[in-house]
Structures are given as C-alpha cells and as structure tokens.
C-alpha cells in the first residue's frame, strides 16, 4: 500500500509499505480522509521526534471503512463505516481506575506513539472504533475527532442557554468550540488577532474582537451590559491570552484551558481570588464526547463543511503541510487517502 511517511523535520516521503494485517482485537481500516491536526504540524516541524519511531506515518483525524478485523473481533465487520478515538490508555493506573482513561498516566496517542492514518490503510485496536452513520459523508467523518475536542471543552465549561461565552483564539479548535457553545444556547464572542479568521468567524455569524486594536476587557463588557463572561475558553495559547482570561470572566465565572502552554505562563491570580473563578483543564475527549460529536455532525445543524479549507491527495501531504503553514485563512486541511467518494 501507499503511505506518506514522516522522515524528520519538514521531510515527508511517499513510499510503498506493507499493508497491515489485523492481529488480536484489531481492525484494519481503509482510510478515506484524514485531517491535519495542529499536533501533526508540530510533528512536521520536528518538535515531537522523541515520541515517534522515525520513519513513521502520522495522522489521527480520520474517516474510513473497515477492511478486515482480527479473528476475535465480533462487534465489527468489513464494510463498517468508522472513525477512531485515537487514545490508548493502560486501564490500570490510578487515573484509569478513577474512570478518567482519556488522561491515563501512561496514555499513548494513536498516530503519534503508533503508526497513523496518512496512509491507505490504518491498523487500530477495535475498542477505539466509533460507528459513523450511513448518510454522513467521509469528509465530515474526518472532522469528528476535532469536533469531539470541542464537545469535551464545552462540556467541561458547562455551557448552557443564556451564557455569554468568550473564545480566545479563533483557529480550527476555537471555531469548533464556538460552534458547540452556540449550539448549547450561548452567545459567543471570538477574540482573534488574525483578520482572515475574524472574517471567517463573522461569516459563521459570530461577533468578533481584535484584541490587538482595542481594550479586550472593556470591549467584552461593552457587549455584555457591563458584565464579564460566564465562561472563557482560552484556546490562543498566547501569553496575552493567559493574562486576559481572568480579567474577562465575571465573578464566579469559569475558564476552560484548552490551549497547550509548553512553559509556565503568568496568570493574574489575584483576579482568581477576588472573583472566585473556576479554572478547568480540558484535554482531548472521552467516549461520550465522540458520540456527541457524531450525533452533532449527523444532525447537520453545524456548518462543518465550511470548516474544510482544502483537500489534498495523500501523495501531496508535504505540500499540504506547507500550505497550512503559509495560508493565514486556512481552517481544516484534509488529506484524501483513498477513493473518489465524497
Ligand atoms: Zn487532532
Ligand atoms: Zn492508565
């Protein structure tokens, strides 16, 4: 089969590799589409080599159809339409035993610690499969994983009808968080420095703020009759974002930490104390978030197709990474791994 392999920083090679065979408890999926995640871009830049076995296939935001299953797999069969929740937890550590398998202390991410889906076929543990509804197109199927991230974030933030929410950072995840929060009945304002992304958000019907050219806190309160936000999603991963979040939340408000801050970053703890704020970490997703994402996508209520900026064929994966780096208006980039079906 064909595979696009990561060989080191900025080097993707197009190779023939052995088609995987399913072992015990495993399924081999014929991949239809696989989206490029921010994490994949970090990999492409060479920042995550320590977690990989190079040369390696990466990619985890996918849709596909089961090609074969291990002899002991009875819940799944050839032809089933699926996506994958790409987390492999140990099931034994204290965190797993508490039921939080998605933040297992020994977690392995399929497509990072194992081979990924930027290939014609992907072998995964059958336990990680989720069924896609018959009518859902394959491109939407590849958006389920990032949408599940957003579902998890919004669930952690307990967003409900009438809430005023600020999403700081309007990239693909921020945009999906905004869509899910609005779906829950919140009024959502997106703070984003990139004018292309603000324009995109406005097309989706969101109010936006450019935090570089206004006083963010003042602007947020202006929009909310003088009050701070019920819930703030910090998705920007920026130092100004971390500093602003406590200013933007109302007394007893919630802050959901979605972004990955690689190093300690200043936060105004006095505002935390003064307003009795709650900070919630939100990392990946749980089973129910995947099910929710699939149901949401299937319902057709979210403009998810608009999130797809461009589709590249598998052999152009390297080009797709470059496009994603350069194109300031890019949201989701998908790779078509097999077949001509939408
Ligand atoms: Zn992802
Ligand atoms: Zn564990």
Write up what this structure looks like:
The protein has eleven helices and 17 strands. It is an alpha/beta fold. The chain folds into two domains: about 1-145 and about 285-335, Medium-chain alcohol dehydrogenases, catalytic domain (Quinone Oxidoreductase, Chain A, domain 1, Alpha-Beta Complex), CATH 3.90.180; about 160-280, Rossmann fold, CATH 3.40.50.720. The protein starts with a strand and ends in a 6-residue tail after the last strand. The longest helix is centred in the middle third of the chain and has 13 residues, at about 145-155. The strands form four sheets. Strands 3, 4, 5, 8, 9, 16 and 17 form a seven-stranded mixed sheet that branches. About 45% of the residues are buried. The structure holds zinc ion (ZN) (2 copies).
How would you sum up this structure in a few lines?
This protein is of the alpha/beta class.
Separation, N- and C-terminal Cα atoms: 21 Å
- The tally of helices reads 11
Number of domains: 2
Rg, Cα atoms, Å? 20 Å
Shape: globular
**How would a crystallographer describe the biggest sheet?**
7 strands, mixed
User: What oligomeric state is this?
Assistant: single chain
The CATH architecture of the largest domain would be: Alpha-Beta Complex
Please identify the top-level CATH class of the largest domain: Alpha Beta
β-strand percent reads 25-35%
- Helix-residue proportion: 25-40%
């Amino acid at each position: 089969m064909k595979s696009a392999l990561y060989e080191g920083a900025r080097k993707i090679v197009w190779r023939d590799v052995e088609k995987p065979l399913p072992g015990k408890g495993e399924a081999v999926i014929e991949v239809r589409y696989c989206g490029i995640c921010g994490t994949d871009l970090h990999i492409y830049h060479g920042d995550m080599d320590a977690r990989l076995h190079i040369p390696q296939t990466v990619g985890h935001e996918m849709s596909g159809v089961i090609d074969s299953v291990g002899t002991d797999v009875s819940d799944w069969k050839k032809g089933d339409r699926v996506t994958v929740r790409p987390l492999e937890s140990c099931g034994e550590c204290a965190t797993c035993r508490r039921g939080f398998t998605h933040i297992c202390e020994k977690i392995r991410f399929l497509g990072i610690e194992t081979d990924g889906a930027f290939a014609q076929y992907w072998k995964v543990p059958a336990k990680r499969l989720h069924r896609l509804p018959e009518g859902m197109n394959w491109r939407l199927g590849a958006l389920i994983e990032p949408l599940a991230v957003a579902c998890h974030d919004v669930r952690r933030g307990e967003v409900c009808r009438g809430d005023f929410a600020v999403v700081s950072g309007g990239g693909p995840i921020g945009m999906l968080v905004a869509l899910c929060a609005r779906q829950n009945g919140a009024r959502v304002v997106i703070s984003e420095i990139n004018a292309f992304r603000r324009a995109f958000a406005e097309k989706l019907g969101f109010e936006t703020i450019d935090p570089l050219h206004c006083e963010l806190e003042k602007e947020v309160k202006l929009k909310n009759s003088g009050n701070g936000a019920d819930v703030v999603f910090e998705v920007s991963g920026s130092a100004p974002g971390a500093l602003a979040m406590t200013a933007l939340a109302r007394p007893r408000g919630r802050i959901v930490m979605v972004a990955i801050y690689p190093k300690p970053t200043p936060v105004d703890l006095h505002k935390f104390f003064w307003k009795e704020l709650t900070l919630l970490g939100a990392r990946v997703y749980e089973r129910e978030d995947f099910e929710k994402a699939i149901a949401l996508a299937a319902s057709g209520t979210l403009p998810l197709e608009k999130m797809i900026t461009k589709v590249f064929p598998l052999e152009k994966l390297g080009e797709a990474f470059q496009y994603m780096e350069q194109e300031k208006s890019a949201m989701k980039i998908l790779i078509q791994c097999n077949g001509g079906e939408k």
